[in-house]
Amino acid sequence: MQPLARALTVLVVEDHAPLREQIALLLRSAGHRVDEASDGRLALASALQTPPDVLVLDLGLPGLSGLALCRQLREQAAQPIPVLMLTARDTLPDKLEGFAAGADDYLTKPFASEELLVRVLALSRRAGAGLDFRLHIGSLALDRRSREAWRHGQRLVLP
Ligand code: CA
């Protein structure tokens, strides 16, 4: 089932220009407004000044890492900004580290265009509803409110 599309403002933070342009083009062709940034520090300033509906965030960035940006955004932003973290890493500890820093969802490179669009929309809806704290990534489930995680339905012990 395809969710009804709505126009969003998305800040894409990625220092690899070809990928950033590809993501921006993809989002724009789906009708969204896109701002682009390649430096972590500038991206944080931009997101705090003009909060986007969704932040698409690369992990490895000059200026400020994606994880540090995410943490500072959580501390400083007046309103919650949904963060979709992009990364080449795909191991469980990396994902948990991302979520601990405040990411709302996670996408491993390379990813399908369709999946990026669907996740960005889902994040914006979740933020709008402000209710759903439970995230699912494959076999992994995470409750952002209680800070509990499950894999294949089995509770994980987190440090
Ligand atoms: Ca990068």
What would you say this structure looks like, in words?
The protein has helices spanning 17-29, 40-49, 66-76, 92-100, 113-129, and strands at residues 9-13, 33-37, 54-58, 83-87, 105-108, 134-137, 140-143, 148-151, 154-156. The protein has 159 residues and is of the alpha/beta class. The strands form 2 sheets. Strands 2-1-3-4-5 form a 5-stranded parallel beta sheet, with helices on both faces. Strands 6-7-8-9 form a 4-stranded antiparallel beta sheet, with no helix packed on it. Strand 6 and strand 7 (140-143) form a beta hairpin. The mean pLDDT is 87. The protein binds calcium ion.
Structural class: alpha/beta
Chemical compounds bound to the protein = calcium ion
Radius of gyration: 15 Å
In DSSP terms, counting alpha (H) and pi (I) runs of 4 or more, how many helices? 5
Strand order of the largest sheet: 2-1-3-4-5
Order of helices and strands: EHEHEHEHEHEEEE
The coarse silhouette is globular
Query: Spans of 5+ residues with little confidence (pLDDT < 50)?
Result: none
Instruction: Please give the oligomerization state of what you see.
Output: single chain
Percent of residues in beta strands = 15-25%
| End-to-end distance | 38 Å
Helix proportion of residues, in percent? 25-40%
Largest sheet: 5 strands, parallel
Number of strands: 9
Report mean pLDDT, rounded to a whole number: 87
